[in-house]
Amino acid sequence: MVNKGIGGDVVEGLASRWTTDIIEENPDWVSIAIGINNVARASMTNQKLEDALNRFRDNYQEIISRTREETNARLILLEIFYVAEEDKLHRNYNITPYNEVIHELAEDFGSILVPVSSAFRLRTIEDLLFFKDETRDSRFSEDDLVS
């Protein structure tokens, strides 16, 4: 396994170095986990969602297509994850439309999809429903959370 990820990178940057980082390695498997920085930059620069998504889709599709055409690698696509409850800056990033793109691409290219965001959301809900303190374990039902 070789990790070619660069912190702070966006899918356009990944696409620009795909030949060197991936194609020339001729891997058996490629996992792609990218996108939260695309979401953040689009938000910070007030890009129109449609424009940002089109760029994201085009570049992501390019790297998948090139991988299919130039290697025999199997592809694993990971959803973008963002845990709003952990974001101390309260940026409220909307990752859903980006993850929809990733789902579409995984289906179109017959790639394995890892629903990372869904797993984090489920865990966050479980954490809200279940907590431990030093003296007891408590479990709440959903009815207990309704005011």
Record the strand order, biggest sheet: 1-2-3
Q: Count of helical segments?
A: 7
Mean pLDDT: 85
Distance between the termini: 49 Å
State the order of secondary-structure elements, H for helix, E for strand.
HHEHHEHEHEEH
Task: Please state the overall shape, judged from the principal axes of the Cα atoms.
Answer: globular
Major β-sheet annotation: 3 strands, parallel
How does CATH name the architecture?
3-Layer(aba) Sandwich
The CATH homologous superfamily corresponds to: SGNH hydrolase
- Report the structural category: alpha/beta
CATH level-3 fold name: Rossmann fold
Structural description of this entry:
- The protein has 147 residues and is an alpha/beta fold.
- It is 50% helix and 12% strand.
- The protein contains seven helices and five strands.
- It has helices spanning 11-16, 18-21, 36-44, 49-70, 96-109, 116-129, 142-145, and strands spanning 29-32, 74-78, 112-114, 130-132, 137-139.
- The strands form two sheets. Strands 1-2-3 form a three-stranded parallel β-sheet, with helices on one face. Strands 4-5 form a two-stranded antiparallel sheet.
- A hairpin with a 4-residue loop joins strand 4 and strand 5 (137-139).
- Helix 4 packs parallel to helix 5 (96-109).
- The protein is globular, with a radius of gyration of 18 Å.
- It starts with 10 loop residues before the first helix and ends with a helix.
- Residues 132-147 have low confidence and may be disordered.
